[in-house]
Amino acid sequence: MWKYNCWIAVIVCISCGEPKNGSAGVEFKELKGYQIHLDEWTSPVEDYVQYLDNWKGQEAYAFHVRKKEEIKIYGLESGQLMETLAYSQGGANPYQGVYDFHILNEDSIFLNKRYNYKTYLVNQDYKTVSEYSFLSDDTEVDRSTGIPLSGDTFLPVFTHNRKFRKVGKKVFLTGSPDKNAKDPDFYDSNCLIVSVDIQTGEYNPLLGYPDRMKGKGWGPLHANVYSDYSDEQHFFVLSYEADGALYLADSSLKVYRHFEASPDHYEPIESVPFSAESNEDAYLDHFNEQFRFGSVLIDPYRNLIYRIALAPDPNYGDVFLRDPLYKPRNLIIMAFDTGTFDKVAETRLVQNGRGVYLDRCFVNERGLNIAYVDLEDEDRLHFKTFLAE
């Protein structure tokens, strides 16, 4: 069945005792997972997705099908389509052109028009409850492109691994600086995570890059930060794509600790060399030889932190496609104890040509769930479930 293809859009720390980070000696155990039976419009690689721990009494998984302007919600246990949220009913409305979404509950849904620098909070009838703007009224923009000229602005983003979180009366989302990620100036930005007061709409950029990344250019494929938040222990964990460490921050995003969280046989990621700054082929060659870090997730059931790493692939080739099913990198999943921060498990998921593991993950009572696409049956999305034992 033909599917719509969805392209991936493309700190200062207090010193502390470092935990052990050698080979954990323990691998993850795979358990029975989930299968979602996708309808004709839903691709298994939609970039805008969300795990729902409770949708009308059931665990569910939501996909944003942008070309249909619909959010489709599937039951995890049944694998069947439960509901379609047709938020844009045609005609003139402010929701056309939405990219990101986040379902807080059945009556509170955030819709993000990232390239218009606006996010809407809508109710179950898709009526606007609040509108949040991330451009001040006096911001000068390029008339032909609509891009701000100041260089101090950011795009609001929340995707499958750049999380949207509500903490108290604020929400936290990722900011993507309006700068060139190959330029060292990009890494002086302090808008990587932004807090928004739900009632007033006031926003505050709260997070920048760690010291080791400042003053250098790392390129757009090593520029992101991923995060998760512990509701029980009230801390953020931060994973930078180009940094082997994980960072812990309080609920105000003040970093108070970091620890090494890299896989076995890890080689530190290098910044973009001068010869590759304006040469795309040289940049891709450089990128292919580097590790890349992805999602980070907190497991409150087992007191673990999971981190995804993507292994280098020097044989990738000289053409980069933003299709996650094209020449995917091997995934390395790691687990760290939230008390000692020691690595307790590590497993390499090898892409075998028959299917693709994707860095689209969620945690529930069963364990760590990782998306898997069977290349001979793209009408289903599988989630492989793993436990660190």
Gist of the model:
It is built from one helix and 25 strands. By secondary structure, it is mainly beta. The chain has one domain: TolB, C-terminal domain (Neuraminidase, 6 Propeller).
Question: What does the model show?
Answer:
The chain has one helix at 280-288; strands at residues 28-37, 49-55, 58-65, 70-75, 81-85, 100-105, 108-113, 118-122, 128-133, 154-157, 165-167, 170-177, 193-197, 203-205, 225-230, 235-240, 245-249, 255-260, 292-299, 304-310, 331-337, 343-349, 355-364, 367-374, 380-388. The chain is mainly beta. The protein has one helix and 25 strands. The longest helix has 9 residues, at 280-288. It starts with 27 loop residues before the first strand and ends with a strand. The chain has a single domain, classed as TolB, C-terminal domain (Neuraminidase), CATH 2.120.10.30. 2% of the residues lie in helices and 41% in strands. Strands 10, 11, 12, 13 and 14 form a five-stranded antiparallel sheet that branches. It has a four-stranded antiparallel sheet with strand order 1-25-24-23, with no helix packed on it.
